[in-house]
Amino acid sequence: MIKILVATDLSERSAHAVQRAVQLIRRQGGGEWCLLHVIDDDAPAEHVASQVQQAETLLHAQAERLAEQAGSRPHVVVGSGEPAAIIVESAQGMGADLLVVGAHRKSALRDFFVGTTLERVVRSSHLPVLRVNGPVTREYRHALLAMDLSRTSQQALRQARQLGLLAADDFHVVGAVEPVAPGAMMEAGLSVEVLQNQRELLRQQLVERLSEDGVSLANERLQVHVGSPEGVIGEALRQSGADLLVLGTHAREGLSRFFLGSVASRLLATVDSDALVVPPAA
User: Which helix (H) or strand (E) holds 91?
Assistant: First the structure.
């Protein structure tokens, strides 16, 4: 059974994350999960203590209701201090397999994922993060894995399968061959034919990578297109009807540089689907 940590700011956005955690826990027949709320301690001690008490009261009452829905009562943790440190400590303490968070406001979403609390959490805990973007009306029915030739893409595939978020062969994979600017193409002697050859080569290489994990997809489920990764992935989400986007992060650059550079940070700021962000293994 997977262990789930839900970071909540007690907002409606976080309520969506809580409901997704309920669905995941219920699907596996119960299990250990935790509601975590962090209070900013940049205030007088009396004020912080009062906020902690209020949050604990609210979350314990919520936990009783959630126990009936999920089949397992969540633990409640309310801490004060630096959010990333509290989240990492709590995740390590319970041996969490997954962190679930709600989406911030559209205008703030990129800031939430780049150079902020979540980046520090992923870098230091290597914990997969499920960002829940809206109300939970059903289980995930179809996922899209954005894939390149990095080990982190394979890690994302494996983690998503272990978490039960990717069925054995019922998902789509998309890769992108990014063209250079037209002028640069001429200078480099590149042509449309060369790009198409690169596309076919990447597709075959992805087939081989997938086969290493025992995955064999129908041709229509593995798409490689020439274009900007952001555009290719966004279009694949629309065409496939996927309700979950799975992304791997790169080891050296952390969450500030996702799959194929900063593409994912822009995608997460614009796409409506939920997203599973998988960092490299420790």
Answer: helix 83-94
- The CATH fold assigned to 143-278 is Rossmann fold (3.40.50)
Cα separation, 109 vs 93, whole angstroms = 28
Helix axis angle for 12-27 and 45-70, nearest 10°, is: 40
* Alpha-carbon gap, residue 191 to 272, rounded angstroms: 35
pLDDT at 190: 58
Diameter of the chain by CA atoms?
69
Task: List pLDDT tens digits, range 169-202.
Answer: 789 999 998 876 555 454 455 577 888 889 999 9
**Under DSSP, is residue 250 helix (H, G, I), strand (E, B) or coil?**
strand
Task: Report the Cα 29 to chain-centroid distance in Å.
Answer: 23
> What's the CATH fold of domain 4-102?
Rossmann fold (3.40.50)
From the number of C-beta atoms within 10 Å of its C-beta (0-12, 13-18, 19+), residue 9 rates as middle
